[in-house]
Structure formats: structure tokens, C-alpha cells
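Appendix B, record 7
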Amino acid sequence: MKNAKAVVFDMDGVIIDSEALWQSAQITTLAEFGVTVTHEACEQLTTGRRSDEIARIWQEKFALDINPVVLEASILTRVVSLIDQYGVAMKGLYEALDYFRQQDYKIALATSSAHRVIQVVFDKLDLWKYFDVITSAADVIRGKPDPAVYLATAVKLDLAPQHCLVIEDSGNGFLAAHRAGMRTYVVSPRCDDEKFHLAAGNYRTLCELVVDFSLPQPLSA
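C-alpha cells (predicted):
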């Protein structure tokens, strides 16, 4: 960690407890078209994906007679409303942000979510003052698990990827950051899942991560 100069946060599931809200938005929207999906199906197929990709996945899976752009807009409208009403910060978020700021790290966001979702999350949780760089996968050619959003964030930070630490919670996000060549930490109740075995660290909460980072580091770190 001695060469790290920035920490890059994913948003949904790392900064804000919104994964269930995303799933509810998809379930409710798809129900309008006579399609029933479960929270488990949403988690398996769409977690960590861009909203346009989520819409395309469902449109293709159920051969829906609807423009994916319309489906995406409906899902986004619902998730923004749900976040505005029910969104809460993940445990340890402000402690983590304060810690990294005190340690003189640059702080960045690299999320699959669209800008309107970023807006409601940052307004809701009062986060604008913490972040030096904000990047949405909507601004790059391909979303996670492609590394593009993380590489674009490194460019904005004016840093090489190896000087960036990443905090992720999803399989797609982890793959994106790992493929970008960034040291990646997983913070998730499922952090011990086999798909995260290459993570630099595995934690159930941001509180655990901050405690570990606060400990004296070996010279080889």
C-alpha cells in the first residue's frame, strides 16, 4: 500500500445500501410487462451492471416487445425514487472517507450507475465534499466487468492504475478493477466467496477495512 495515492470506491453496495432497491425497481418495472423475476435472479444477472445493460438483459431474456431504452428509463426512475426515500449509507462509510482523507489519499468514485443515480446518492448522503473524481460507466464504451471505468478514473486522477486502491463488493466490479491492474479490496457480507479469492483484502464492512488499514504495515506491504 506504500505506493498507493488514491482510493476508488464503487457506489452501490459499498457507499450506499442500494442493491435491494435496485432489485425492487427491476421487479416492479418488469411486473408491468407481465414478467415475474426474483431478487435472486436480479442479483445473479444484473448486480454491478450498467442500467442500459440491465434493461437489455431482461429484454432479451423474456423477448419483451419494448425498447430497452424505455425499460431502462423506467427502472432508473424507480431506483432514484427508492434511494431518495430509503437509501442509507453503508456501515463505516464516513469513517472510511475521513480516514483516507486524513491519510492524504485522493478519493474517487467509479460506478456502473448513471449520473442521475450518482446525483441522488451524493445529495442524500452529503458526499460531494469528499470526492476528487467521479466517473460513471455510462461515460465509457463498456461497463463492468470491463476495466474501462476504472482506467478512465485513473486518467482523471492522473495516476497509474497501480497507484490506485479499489473498494468493491460485486463480482463484476471486482473483475473490472482487477483487470485494470488496481489493488482491489472486497467489502461485502459475501467477501469470502471463491470469486474474490484474488482480492488484496476481504472484509464484511468498511469498519473492518479501516481497522485493518490503521494497523502498522509490514515493510514489504
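Remarks on this record: DSSP finds nine helices and six strands in the chain. The beta strands are 6-9, 106-111, 133-136, 164-168, 183-187, 201-203.
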